[in-house]
Design a protein that fits this description.
- The chain is globular, with a radius of gyration of 23 Å.
- By secondary structure, the protein is of the alpha/beta class.
- 41% of the residues lie in helices and 19% in strands.
- It folds into 2 domains: 287 residues, Aldehyde Dehydrogenase, Chain A, domain 1 (3-Layer(aba) Sandwich), CATH 3.40.605; 188 residues, Aldehyde Dehydrogenase, Chain A, domain 2, CATH 3.40.309.10.
Length: 490
């Protein structure tokens, strides 16, 4: 509790934080009137704060604020919206170290990764500041003389945005920035595990001159908040990042109200490594990619299919690299991987590793918790994992890598595509023809070839199958918050 209070006090001194975790409702920072909940430091297990969540009255006030804010913001020229977004980007850069410290305390990731996340938030606001002026309409050749046939993009309306705890600032920015650039207002509900990171975005936007009501931030009982917001006629669009079961529930609620959704749901990323690849480089990159944010990444590489001739060498090098990862508190500059975000992830790791071992998988390294306090789990590599092990079908969302051998590329692609999800996929090869085949046949929304970098501000990001629908990032991310109105004028 004291550590969180100190961090928030420092944030306050830097000009954007408050002494407690408050809601942002119609331009006012205020304590919630709903039930309280606990924010836990995952590195120590200590309670950081016990803020009060939003009541139904708080939610109604946020809806009223979003409705009034939309009426104002939609009439603000794109150049004016861009100024606010660009100012926000600069404020985030100025406040990077303080916000990153808050994020590490409440989420667990190493401080360097938190600082990188804030820099990517700033990049996102900058990019959509520029993109706001590129929401072009078009003129269609008229059917008769003197007529005009026009397509005019307009903001879809107030947005309800739901974000998870693994990237608590960046995933909020990827929803809020394009929504605001399009002229929409927004009600953001961040994860209760990591409220301070999202609130820091709200402070930056308010300080940058965003009018009252254009952005509201609420937290509390997730089911109650989602039901109330989605049922309201004020909300015109839903955007969500999180688990498949929750995404399905929100999609049902939205369908009952005939409201469009953008859903970025779970993944279980395959990695196909052909024997012509640079095996040592692939193993080194895989260790970094697997342990980023303790594997709590929807695009985290997990199912490694390695061609048989390269299999043993890859397993040896990958296991060695994972065993050298420095585990510890994210505030320690020596730490390379922090704790899992909550006790639920520890339980999941224990269950999946135990099940895989029961199916004769070999534990090459890790396979156990990593400390007497906090939610630490050692980077774990399992070899010879059969396809029927639970971990091969259930997203681990933790530092667990699964390796299995294959003979022919067609076999590897078929096994990779067997999953019901299809978010990210990866492959390592020097073969141009294999790269083309992988690009055409892997059933994923984004693909990295000889790289784990598949998410960039300027590029569309989306999944296929049960990984969701709609796009974030790029011009496609802005388009999701626009309605293309057709106007015929005779």
């Amino acid at each position: 509790m004291q550590g969180q209070a100190t961090a928030i006090a420092q944030a306050s001194a830097d000009g954007y934080g408050g002494g407690e975790l408050q809601l942002l409702v119609d331009g006012e920072w205020r304590a919630g009137c709903g039930r309280s909940f606990r924010v836990i430091n995952p590195a120590t297990g200590e309670v950081l704060a016990e803020p009060s969540g939003a009541s139904l009255d708080d939610l109604d006030a946020a809806l009223a604020g979003a409705e009034a804010g939309f009426a104002l913001w939609r009439r603000t020229p794109a150049t004016g919206r861009a100024v606010v977004l660009a100012r926000t980007a600069q404020l985030l850069r100025d406040r990077t170290k303080a916000i990153a410290r808050l994020m590490t305390i409440e989420q667990g990731k190493p401080l360097a990764q938190s600082e990188l996340e804030i820099s990517l938030c700033a990049e996102t606001f900058d990019w959509y500041a520029a993109e706001a002026g590129r929401a072009y309409g078009r003129i269609i050749p008229a059917r008769s003389p003197g007529a005009r046939q026009m397509v005019l993009p307009e903001p879809i309306g107030p947005v309800a945005a739901f974000t998870p705890w693994n990237f608590p600032a960046l995933l909020a920015a990827r929803k809020v920035a394009p929504a605001l650039a399009a002229g929409c207002s927004c009600i953001l509900k961040p994860a209760e595990e990591t409220p301070a990171s999202a609130l820091a975005l709200g402070h930056a936007l308010a300080d940058a001159g965003l009018p009252a009501g254009v952005l509201n931030i609420v937290f509390g009982d997730p089911a109650e908040i989602s039901r109330h917001l989605i049922a309201s006629p004020v909300i015109r669009k839903i955007t969500f990042t999180g688990s498949i079961p929750v995404g399905r529930s929100l999609a049902v609620l939205a369908a009952e109200q005939v409201k469009p959704c953008t859903l970025e749901l779970g993944g279980h990323a395959p990695v196909i490594i052909l024997d012509d690849a640079d095996i040592d480089a692939a193993a080194a990159l895989s260790a970094i990619g697997k342990t980023r944010n303790a594997g709590q990444v929807c695009t985290s590489p997990t199912r490694f299919y390695v061609q048989r001739q390269a299999h043993d060498r890859f397993v040896e090098r990958f296991g060695q690299a994972l065993s050298r990862i420095v585990l510890g508190d994210g505030l320690d500059p020596q730490t390379e991987m922090g704790p899992l975000a909550n006790a639920r992830r520890l339980d999941a790791m224990e269950r999946l590793v135990t099940d895989a071992a029961r199916h004769q998988a070999e534990i090459v390294t890790g396979g156990e918790s990593g400390g007497e306090r906090g939610f630490f789990w050692r980077p774990t590599l399992l070899a010879n994992v059969p396809d029927h092990a639970a971990a091969m079908t259930e997203e681990p969302f933790g530092p667990l890598a699964l390796v299995s051998a294959f003979d022919e590329l067609d076999e590897a692609i078929a096994r990779a595509n067997r999953s019901s999800v299809g978010l990210a996929g990866y492959a390592f090869t020097r073969s141009a023809s294999a790269a083309v085949k992988l690009g055409e046949e892997l059933e994923v929304g984004v693909l990295g070839l000889n790289s784990f970098a598949v998410s960039h501000t300027e590029a569309p990001f989306s999944g296929v199958k049960q990984s969701g629908y709609g796009y974030e990032g790029g011009s496609e991310g802005l388009a999701g918050f626009l309605h293309q109105k057709y106007v015929h004028h005779s």
